[in-house]
Protein 1
Amino acid sequence: MNYLMEMSMESICGTYDLQDNLKESGIMANETKTLAGLHLNFWKQDEHTIHMSIKNPHAGKDAWLTSIEHTDKHEGTQMARTHNNLFRDLKSILEENGKW
């Protein structure tokens, strides 16, 4: 938190090159780990399952289908595909858009 406050103060004073400092601190290096341009679709399969299709225009597998399940589907037991927080967030997007 102090680091961000120092960056802001120096930026305001005009004596600070933000790009160079971010590169030196390693923050800019993390930007290159983002893979943009994927095509994502997701939909309700049943009350406890959301399916996702992902198309990859980059190197690697072209496309895949996967699912995210809520633990309610398995009587509260954690399984490989159960991700309650992600399920909740995706479900809320579907609900807000009338797709649930």
Note: The chain has a mean pLDDT of 79.
Protein 2
Amino acid sequence: MPHTPLWASVQGRLYDTEAPERAAMPYIVMTLVSDVSTPFADRCEVQFSIVSNRSSAEEAERIRSALIALYDDCDLPGVGTPNNLGMERTHATRVRDGGLWLYHITYEIWIAKL
């Protein structure tokens, strides 16, 4: 993800599960929500939480747009045949909480077992 508009919009501040205390803003926290394996596919849900302390939602909206541009209908070359791998946005919410703008965007990712 380095050298993408998303990476630049948070200056590389992408954290796994939780951000460090007093982390510079804006940033994104990526959390594994669920991970399920079936005989036909491996599936997981990943939530990206965008955090901004600006007074307006403009910064968070710009980061959200960069995230969606990167991951919606993403093409992962070299993984195999079409429909072998997929990534789909399943949920998105925006809230204002304690002076922070929070966007929670969830994607389902699956890999078919051939």
Note: Helices lie at 5-9, 58-71.
Protein 3
Amino acid sequence: MLSGGILPIYRAGFRCNVVELKIDASQSFGGLAEVAGFRTEILKRILSEICPCKVHLRIDWAMRGYRQPDLTAGDWAKFDDLFRDAPKGISDLALQFTVDLNVPLNEYLTRILSMCAPLRVNRLEVHMNAPDIFVRYRNGGVGGQGYLRRVMRGMDIPLFARQTAQHIPTLCVFVLGLPPGLKSQWRIARSHFGDVRLDQVEL
């Protein structure tokens, strides 16, 4: 397995095929816009030169701090195009997103579907997390996980799993992980007419 940040791996200039690639694309010195522009092109080049079978990718979409610019339509388009020319040998993909809870969750889900649509993987995992949020209650207690749980549980997980399966016709297994510790896994079967059937796996 080859593991590391996106820039160290790129600068190392690997030209050999690897079975598994674990890469952190969230490390940025220029903010989210740089991740969307410069680093998506680097990541596409890394994938084409290494041709991994399994990919673990971490992307930070959280707006941390007042200096972080919002992503523009052009920035989002670069993410949408990330896997358009991905090597056909990728069979397993695990995506880990850090998201901003001030952005509607459905917007992130739409972007994830657009990003993954060109893929022809057998297994896809999507893990979503958010920066720790601390809420101070009247009794003096401090907590944040309950807030995260309510926000993330508001999504329709079966619907998102079905939409993902419809976007990726080769998908056999879909896993969705939400904080704190919520995880669902789905087996996907298709009829001769292309209809999708989902069976949830007990974990």
Note: Strands lie at 2-5, 20-24, 54-60, 92-98, 123-129, 135-136, 142-143, 173-178, 182-190, 196-201.
Protein 4
Amino acid sequence: MAADLHAGDPRIVEIGALLRADHPALGPVWNCRGVGAFGHPTIDLAGEPATAHLLHPTGQTEIAVLVATFPRRGT
């Protein structure tokens, strides 16, 4: 989202480059341009697979919360 809102800011470009260098497999996440485009990618969270969700709790596109959830386990 920041890449869209602040495309000309060299700090945003640098952050994107660092994220891609550290975790190239998450390229679709780093390239995301909106909630719909984000989807529900599976990420590694503390060695366990988790599903990521991008939320806009205030309805403002410049404010987003990334939430990761583990799959439901049987009880």
Note: The longest helix spans residues 10-22.
